[in-house]
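User: Is it possible to get a 3D structure for a protein together with its bound compound? The compound here is iron/sulfur cluster. I've pasted both below.
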Amino acid sequence: MLALIRRKMKFQREADPQWADQISQQPGCDRIWSCIQCGTCSGTCPVSIYMDFTPRRVIALVREGFRADVLSCQTIWLCASCYSCAVHCPQNVHITDLMYSLKREAIRHRMYPARFPIPVLAREFYELVRKRGRNSEIWLVLRMALKSNPFILLNMAKYGLSLLRTGRMSLRMERIQRVEELPKELNGMKEVAS
Ligand code: SF4
Ligand code: SF4
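Assistant: Yes, that's possible. Here is the predicted structure of the complex:
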């Protein structure tokens, strides 16, 4: 279970209404103003019971400018990108895209607990792909664990060894041809990964 994160906003005057406008200009977020707060998204979300804010509530908080609360909540990291909410939403709100935008925003402003593994995973993934053109699962997991919480390797070791033994995972790091042409293509991702 993720560690609890302290929410920062106490008073309405601390809200940032312009932030909602900025978020609504992000890809896939333009329909947040069409949300009628029916709660269908929260009802269909398979992980909403583990979230501190349901998807419906995240949208309400974004629209009211509760920036610190939203960016430091666990919900955006627990979203499994299953798109169930988006498929069932009667207003065609792209909630999954909103979750992606909020994650990018939280990473950009470093609004997550120190050594939190998910942003570390995103950065290490970007670095591997930038340098080699390919991801390597075992090295990605090792780098993520060493930079966040090395103890998680104790739980994963058994499965990792089994995958190595059966050839489902390899220690070999692959590299694509003409990898030097990649960085300019990846510039758009840098903002998220840096
Ligand atoms: S299902 Fe759509 S309209 Fe209903 S609360 Fe969720 S985002 Fe809003
Ligand atoms: S995409 Fe995320 S918020 Fe939407 S239903 Fe799936 S897990 Fe829940």
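The mean pLDDT is 87. The chain has two domains: 12-108, 117-193.
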